Batch of 3 targets.
Target 1
Amino acid sequence: MKLDGLTVVDLSLFLPGPGATQMMADHGARVIKVENPNAPEPTRSAQAFPWVQGGETVMFRNTQRGKESIALDLKSEAGKAALTELIRGADVLVEAFRPGVMARLGFDTDTVKAINPRLVYCSISAFGQTGPWRDRPAHDTATVAASGVLSLSRSPENDTSGPAIVGVAMSDMLSSWLALSGILMALLRRETTGEGDYVDVSMLDAVLAASPNILGPVFAGQQAPDRFAERSHGGGAMLNIYRTADQRFLALGGGEHKFVKALFEGLERPEFIAAVSGPAGSGHEAAIAFLRDTFVQRTLTEWEAWFAGRDICWSPVLDLEQAWSEEHVYAREMRWTDEQENDHIGIAIKFDREPGTINPQLPAMGQQTSKILDELDLTNAQRRAILSAL
């Protein structure tokens, strides 16, 4: 596999860091998860993450598969010695503490570089290692709120509705993918220079970087978007959500002229084609009102039959269970079931050569501690101190 031979030391918790390192594990990297024996990975807890399958939480299974776990108290001298040796033999280190924590533990960037100049050291935090917000505590929703994106997440039918929580951990996952990209770029460059690098990934930055299609009013007009004048926020007839007769919803998802023409000719209202082919906003209002009145007259199943064979960009609005039960999702192997009939999120990066492979094994907290310690240059006293804490 693509990352065979790489060793990753993972100090991160929850989603952004573990998501990135699991993708690396799926493609062949050895990922050693460092857990605090007194406060292990939070996603192991069925109290915090109550949906359990096969004895493990679904969250833990889908962020920690294929990894090894070593239990280390990084405030102890023996724990620090073990982490030092892990770093010495690793290619990548990933951490997601608040800025400054790694320095207080004795593993700031200069110290780590001195231990292993070839290491790629990646820090993931809410607001980054610099700037006036660096010390603010935050998880996904707070960083999405700070990005301005949360203000846009509301019903296109009702401008008075307040912001709605985005249905996926947007900043967590975007920063996870950004971390993976940065790590791989640094590893590629290391092939030329022989030197590692430091990668500073901010969850806020990840959302800001994902926003080029919504920044026209901000950059060109120095103003927040008027949602109903913007094509992707409810002001466009062809990028909108419509209710059906059975209180379900469908989404139109593309405003190219060919889609506009196919829709309104099919509905026998060609007079809307010219306006809807133009800029979003007031010119679309009459068409949006017509579509709302029209789509609510038939059930979603009836509309599915009507759309069949027509060149129109659309989709039923599926709930999460419906989406993950679709034949297409199984055909793409994005829902994968192991021999014990536990479900896994599949591998999204697909290669013709050396494709990734899911290893469904999950480590118990500290399961590989003794084995990994045997690989490290530690004294017997240090080994005993670490093992006695388990």
Target 2
Amino acid sequence: MKVSDFNFDLPEELIAQYPAARRQDSRMLVMDRKTGECTLRGFANFAEYLRPGDCLVLNDTKVLKARLWGHRAGTGGRVQAFVLRQVNADSWECLLRPGRRLPPGSVVELDGGGTFTVQEKNEGGTFQVKFETDDVYALMERAGQIPLPPYITRQPTAEDQERYQTVYADHLGAVAAPTAGLHFTKEILSQLEAKGVRIVRLTLHVGAGTFKPVDEENVEDHRMHSERYILTPEAADIINGTHDAGGRVFCVGTTTVRVLETCNIPGTRHVAPGTGATSIFLYPPYRAIVPDCLLTNFHLPQSTLIMLVCTFADQDKVFHAYRLAIENRLRFYSYGDCMLLV
């Protein structure tokens, strides 16, 4: 299967640069997974598609204020650091710009206070650094900036500190938001619970690899990035019990799908709880096993994300829905509108 099979033309002006005025104001394209029939609704109508006894699965990761600014001690050269993950007690993996001017031993003094020292350059162009503080999360919260995706070309604003987090974000560790969840309000979640829908939270810390293009010609040759996840026994029990009772599992976002398919017990639609890292890569002709329905935003051409969406329905049906979305001027990517596959 060729990566180019997942290409499509997307007008640049449909790439959302700002969120909707209110979270629930996004538009929603609803597609029947079997027939491909599509309907345009507002996200405010989302609860209509769930029944008592269904289960809604959310990713409660929280985006780090991972972009830091400073200058190199001694030279004054401007430095941008993008914190990716903690490697061990003393080291963090970062992207640094301009990396070529920061050999091991370089000290960077950060805006807002604090320093880090460059330890070594990794394969792939990232760096390991050591921060002077033991509480790097507090440093990022104080001095960092929310890292908007590269296709949002403007500078972050104060509004992004709130709107690029889900209302249920809880566990710090992501460098990109699980964007399908950005449409939810606390009121909509309460409405679903009152209806008898079980709401389950798992955690997958979205990494910068989510934006990495697929460089291979053949889909099968691509190697997926790894991301850390947590699926608790309580969450697994509710998901398994939902299927046992004849209910449906609604996944909010591709990240929740990746966790459930990683934790799937072979030969069943059940999941086993666990904590670890997953590099699972889902693409046709694979079919999602645990989830019944998927809420997701509209994704980049030739991306692993649109390939995952095509494990919920035939590719021709998904691409027909994308053409409808473009014709109706729906907004794409992180701050854009959404698609519900039922």
Target 3
Amino acid sequence: MPDPLHGLRAEPDPRDPRAPALLHPWREGEALDGRVVVMGVPYDGGIPSRPGARFGPRAIREGLFAFGSWDGEREVAPVLDLGDLSPPSMNGAAAHASIEEAARRVFAAGARPIFLGGDHGITGSLIRGLAAARPDTPLALATVDAHLDVREYADEASLSSGTPFRRALETPVLEGGRVAMLGLRRFANSRFYLEWAGARGIHLTTVDEIATHGAERAAKAALYRATSGAGALYLSIDMDAADAAVAPGVSAPGIGGLSAREMIAIVRTLATDPRLVAADIMETSPPFDQDGRTARLAARLLLELMAAMCPHPAA
């Protein structure tokens, strides 16, 4: 059947490449060693309210259509897209076990992954997978999040979006002195857990401190503190660190969060560290993102990660 819109639909301009073309589907057997890869983790069984983050990976990829591949200074090189995992949706323990094993395989293959979630509880399993693949590498962790996410949990079936960094600290590759958390918001964390984190030497940076000292300076200070003695860096981004005005489509929106420019500046600064081996972008929830602004901000952060981790050879 002939295309009824032939001649009416705008053709892609080869002189203005768009960001979605940067994601190259992985082919079975293609080597991953040293490659930057993107992997979706569409699971949100750990969110106690406002589910929907399982649709985040697709929304973030679609958000790339708003951007080109050149930021005025850097041309982003293509990366491999491994597609989405298919974790069990009705069994939390089994879902996290499958996510951890998938992460272990990706890290063991030598890839440098960017994971798209999904609820933030996933991050604990991703870091456990990294620890299993590289048990002798001291890890530093930087988080961009309004919350501490160090809640206690009873067992693997009770994991939630509030537990990932408690689980990460249970691995032998990570300790509190190599953890930096940026973007903590007022009235978002209890005194108990703030004192728990402080007692373990975790470096805490609030939204107010970022506003006072600047996003780039705060990120550099966090890096200096967390990466001392580390052989690798993991960056975890929760989209609820951004103010609800710029990121309403998250599981736990809040007032008084980071601006879009602050989020971008923090991620750009952290991503340039040569020890960065992996990152994730969590908690984008399309059902609450009617105009797509959260997904577009997440896509912009994905581009910042890609630009830093996989610069174009000609750049």
